[in-house]
Amino acid sequence: MRNCGIAATITLAGCGGTRQTGDDGPTDENEPTDTSTPAGRTTEAVETTSGTQPQVVGQSVATDKTECGSPDESAAVTFDSDDGSVAIDGVMAASNPCYAATLSSVAYDDASNTLTVRVGVESTAQTCQECLGRVEYRASIGFIGGLPGRVIVEHGTEDPQTAADVTR
């Protein structure tokens, strides 16, 4: 068995304010915020502002381990009030072990106080043993103004499946 571990980090940072989208002007402040970023790229923050509501200010994902095996398609969510973050430790399937975890989308909805994180996988383009892959990852989402009351973690990009739905 060949261990094809790889790490990918995505970072998002910025200052508060109403989101601007091109020439359309400010968007609705209560609209869900989608802060998806292609693997290995950095982008300016897109966030909502509504007083004391939580705001996403950073995101990252790292592939901890890859190997052959049947994953249990699970995710565990941890809320850390001290540093204003939500951590997600998960396991998902890939067509072989030479895949890395990616954040397909990160969206916070003010109205429901819910963070939805969609995790996908991306090939590392390495020659790899053919077997069902197991990808273990750790994601972190940073907040200011508090933490969300609920976190939904989805695995997959085409037909995402809920891996965790946690209320604190």
In brief:
The protein is mainly beta and 168 residues long.
How would you explain this protein's 3D organization?
With 168 residues, the protein is mainly beta. It has one domain (12-167). The chain has no helices and eleven strands. The strands form three sheets. Strands 2-7-8-10-11 form a five-stranded mixed β-sheet, with no helix packed on it. A four-stranded antiparallel β-sheet has the order 4-9-6-5, with no helix packed on it. Residues 1-50 have low confidence and may be disordered.
How helix-rich are the residues, as a percent range?
under 10%
The sequence of SSEs as H and E is EEEEEEEEEEE
Bin the strand percentage: over 45%
Detail the poorly predicted runs. 1-50
Shape: elongated
Strand order of the largest sheet: 2-7-8-10-11
Average pLDDT taken over every residue: 77
Gyration radius, in Å? 16 Å
- Measured between the Cα atoms of the first and last residue, the distance is 39 Å
User: What is the SS-derived class?
Assistant: mainly beta
Give a count of the beta strands, DSSP E runs of length 2 or more.
11
The count of domains is: 1
Total helical elements = 0
Question: What composes the largest sheet?
Answer: 5 strands, mixed
